[in-house]
Structure to design on (438 residues):
């Protein structure tokens, strides 16, 4: 069985993660309940004639994937696998609004063509002329992890040697207004917002793109290797410890083997008790959180994955993502745990290579 | 006619998201497809919808599009002769 190495990364987020070194410039938001991704200049990555039809999500996907490929010194992946919770929601909204506004007449093709969930994967493939396996997973808050699991299995089973895998979600104005209406997003009265020690419901909504080149051989650019991935659609809070314990046992790991845990706390007081394992199972383990930097969206866990990969590569946990004061001399094994509203639980183990 | 041409240029830029082009950069006789503005078949569909929605013109003969969409000038002439709104 082959090993699955992370050999390149590209991350567009609400932070300037695209153009700067790992978390060298960060801003912590506590006043906005919606934060938008920091958009790079796309001219370098997308021809103007193509760019004019692309919504933000497609552009973010193309730019982040270009950076990941460049980082891995790879020109053509053998497969492209994308995870997205909401897909190209901006053009979906445009198309549906146009149907309503024009009483089902005068429907223009552009927004419809770009509105499908697999537009990002398709446009990346078109740009690269990559005719290999191209798949998009739309599985809520485990969309990225499902794409990652598919990629990992294909690499390990020697079906392909290199895969571009990514998580991408963009903000849609109308969808966001519905999320606000049903109180999924924090209200204005809850300011200032915080992820840790929050006492308010809902999340700070956001968007972003995290792309990774996975290959079956170690390179100079390698960040870490993907050891294990596990998904669970639903759990009660009291079941989390067993879920993690069983996962570690299945992968011949003990809690003491985990050098750091990356947790998906998002400041929603109703559901952050799923992460209480930080006070029990992992109270003696260095803990990392990241959604105070990225905000919450279906594929925010790809940002967490990017953080974990960089921690292993740099062998350091930046202060800004450190949840407790614990440090280790070396970070060889990192566990990531994420969930959204008690659903879509995921566990990932990354190891130093 | 002059006002219609200016209006058309603005609408073409808006509907086709020609972000880097200004109204004054489009000449009346510039080719819309090919070497001129470089529009493609998807843009042609957008222009057909534009004629229908804004000027009440339904194009039934697809071959006619080649002549009508040659330039802003030819579009304006066709709209002036055939518009229902």
């Amino acid at each position: 069985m082959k090993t699955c190495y992370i050999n390149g990364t590209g991350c567009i987020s609400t932070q300037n993660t695209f153009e700067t070194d790992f978390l060298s410039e960060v801003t912590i938001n506590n006043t906005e309940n919606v934060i938008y991704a920091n958009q790079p200049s796309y001219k370098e990555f997308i021809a103007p004639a193509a760019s004019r039809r692309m919504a933000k999500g497609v552009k973010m996907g193309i730019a982040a994937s270009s950076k990941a490929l460049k980082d891995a010194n790879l020109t053509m992946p053998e497969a492209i696998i994308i995870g997205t919770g909401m897909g190209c929601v901006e053009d979906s909204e445009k198309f549906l609004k146009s149907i309503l506004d024009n009483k089902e007449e005068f429907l223009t093709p552009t927004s419809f063509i770009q509105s499908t969930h697999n537009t990002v994967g398709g446009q990346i493939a078109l740009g690269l002329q990559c005719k290999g396996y191209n798949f998009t997973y739309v599985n809520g808050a485990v969309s990225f992890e499902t794409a990652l699991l598919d990629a990992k299995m294909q690499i390990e089973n020697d079906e392909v040697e290199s895969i571009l895998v990514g998580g991408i979600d963009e903000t849609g104005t109308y969808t966001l207004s519905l999320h606000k209406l049903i109180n999924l997003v924090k209200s204005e009265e809850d300011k200032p917002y915080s992820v840790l020690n929050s006492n308010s419901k809902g999340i700070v909504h956001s968007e972003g793109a995290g792309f990774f080149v996975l290959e079956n051989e170690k390179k100079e650019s390698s960040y870490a290797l993907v050891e294990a991935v596990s998904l669970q659609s639903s759990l009660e809070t009291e079941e989390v410890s067993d879920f993690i314990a069983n996962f570690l046992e299945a992968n011949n790991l003990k809690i003491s083997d985990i050098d750091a845990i990356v947790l998906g706390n998002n400041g929603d007081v109703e559901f952050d008790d799923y992460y209480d394992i930080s006070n029990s199972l992992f109270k003696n383990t260095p803990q990392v959180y990241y959604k105070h930097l990225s905000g919450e969206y279906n594929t925010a866990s790809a940002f967490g994955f990017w953080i974990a990969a960089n921690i292993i590569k740099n062998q350091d946990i930046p202060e800004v993502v450190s949840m407790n004061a614990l440090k280790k001399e070396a970070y060889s094994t990192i566990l990531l745990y994420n969930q959204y509203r008690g659903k879509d639980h995921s566990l990932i183990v990354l190891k130093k290579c | 006619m002059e006002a219609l041409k200016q209006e058309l240029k603005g609408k073409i830029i808006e509907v086709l998201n020609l972000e880097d082009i200004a109204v004054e950069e489009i000449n009346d006789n510039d080719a819309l497809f090919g070497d001129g503005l470089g529009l493609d078949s998807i843009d042609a569909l957008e222009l057909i919808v534009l004629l229908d929605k804004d000027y009440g013109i339904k194009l039934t003969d697809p071959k006619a599009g080649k002549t009508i969409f040659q330039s802003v000038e030819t579009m304006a002439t066709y709209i002036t002769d055939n518009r229902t709104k």
In short: The mean pLDDT of chain B is 91. The CA atoms of residues 12 and 47 of chain B lie 8 Å apart.
